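user: Here is a favour to ask of a fellow structure person. I have my own habits and do not want them to colour yours. Could you put it straight underneath, so I can go through it closely?

assistant:
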Amino acid sequence: MRVLIADSSPFVGTALGWELEGFGVETKVVDSIARVKVEIEAIQPDLLVTELFLKDGDFLVLAAYRPHFPILLLSTHQVAVDDADVISAVDACLLKPIKAIDLISIANKLVFKRPHCLNQTEQLKV
């Protein structure tokens, strides 16, 4: 599974990427919407993990990619996780901090229920 992680904090995004890689997930970490767009073309992710706000905009710009792959939003704000408008713009919304194993479990459900996701050859074993 290929996961693109967009987090405004390079340390947080990289730490999550390292954890996911420990479970066999390919990751790429970026910190802006502009970089997300470039990496979508380059790596064709199976899942996008993002947060509410990046340095050049908010996650709503990325919602246009939802037909191509699931989008999972991570937030430190309980209000955002419970907000109906936020929830309707993504496939899942989770409160930070999150354990990699929990994210993988949800990612598997999101990716493998979509027949058009790009890389569905094998579900991750967790």
